[in-house]
Amino acid sequence: MLLEILGSLFGLVVALYISFKVFFPWVFYDVIYIRSFLKFLSATGKLMQNGLFLIDSFEEKVVKCPDKIFIRFEDHSYTYKDVNEQSNRVARSALQIGLKAGDTIALMIYNEPAFIWSYLGFLKIGVRMALINFNLRSRLLVSALKASEATVLIVGEGHELLSVVQAITVDIPEMEIYIQGIPNGEFPGKMKSFQAVMGLVSSDEIPRSHREKVKHKDPGVYIYTSGTTGLPKPCLVSQTRLIHSGCFCRTFGIRSDDTIYITLPLYHSSGLLLGVGSAILEGATVVLRSKFSASKFWKDCRKYKVTIVIYIGEMLRYLNSRPKEETDGQHCIRYAFGNGLRMDIWDEFRSRFQIPNIAEFYASTEGPVGAINVFNKVGAVGRLSPILRKLLHAHFIKYDVARDEPVRDENGRCVEIKPGETGLYVTKIIHRHPFDGYKGKKELTEKKILHDVFEKGDRYYNSGDLMMIDKDYFIYFKDRIGDTFRWKGENVSTTEVSNVIADLDFIEDAVVYGVQIPGCEGRAGMAAINFKQLEVTSLDADHLKAISEQCNDLLPSYARPIFIRVIKSMSLTSTFKQYKIDLAAEGFDKNKILDTMYIYDTMQSKYVEFTDAIFNSIKEGKIKM
To answer: Structure pTM?
Structure first.
């Protein structure tokens, strides 16, 4: 009798397994996916329940493994103890110049160890940091600094940084400026030496009492994003989010014996929050480079026995384009972890360089919920099945790109997409998935919130990203909405670029948008301009010089338009949004565009005529963008 019952139960289990495998195969993916996220939740839960912060975890690692290498940079190595002592000096120096918990400073430092120990030092005393993009110049830099409401600016080593800041001191008279790396000397204006202060203070441990009033919901750093609503603005990254970001790599199994290679700028989330944060929480090692170099990438990986590389898709495209070598597959890499990797690059990179695992993820600095592909599924950034939607409160809704708004039904509610369709990624704003928003004006935060999405009164975070979902509920990034496009791993605000170009006295108006180029990640900038003198339809030498100087002086290199297109007048018959869509659809194709066009020549640092020969060379991949 017992054997019959056991046999029946076994048969039922087998039948259920086969049924799920045939009719609901995606459930098995969900089991693996949920299990990977439980590792993440377990790690964050332990820290949060014990009232600990990221900086507490770092100090624990200093006690546990003081002599372990934390940072390798160029020909130098720094142990956890070394970095801790330097961060203690930073903290004491900050106290010495009058900073305290709750104050905000702006940090503008290149990728170097000083960035990391400055970051840790300010965390030790609860000082909030606005992380400034060191590519910003002039008006954009002033805007970012003022938006931070920082009282002090810390500038890293480098004469270029010094001159850039010196050029805007008159615009930030209320801000104290301290220079790192130069102990003493003659500084322009009111600038002072932070290094000199650090040389006078102790490296002894900083009492935890200096940050005892800091809460998990309080800001730890402000990271800038242009999002989809205009100028770069500081996203509030809470102390909780610092922990969550650092634990994110638990989903694919990061270990304490891993060595993480970081070439991405530390002022962005991927480099600092995910890369450095993961190393801190695991007690791992970071190999830091000042900037990405395709020619030195694999040499570094072999030299330092790198096991995890953090990437953006553009980096891997550059690596693929390098001449093949016999040593291509010789390395210790277990995982390549990052985002923005196109399908065509994915397969070539994985096979040519023999990468066992690629963990492509999706997240935004301010977004409540992210996703990660732990299945090596080519092109996917994660999953969102019916089960996961319930758990994560995340959805994809139909979006009208031309009208720049979600599609709503007769009841005014948004409509979920079906497998095979593309929709806008939104996440419900609830207690465990908060949207902290942006520093400053509340309207900036409100612009990112959708109301009455599925029920009256509900609130959802608008990611600004369009995704496609397949029949197995894997999700694939497609595009960004609004007045932003992505190029060279950076978000470009079309509004700001338009304003810079339209400031020239001979230009009536400028429309900026992104165009796709074969073999390139993201979209290259195109500025369609028209003259105040309507009869002018081309640029002479003086015009080209003026536009080149304006873009070079006032825009970061990634935001500078690749193409200039001269049009007779802006459209008056359709919506401005639709007009931009129509222009973008024509791309940079000289066979479709009758207008005069120009292209930025990086060798000459100026715009030149866009000829048929240049167009064909770009199509054939002979010119690298």
So the answer is: 0.85
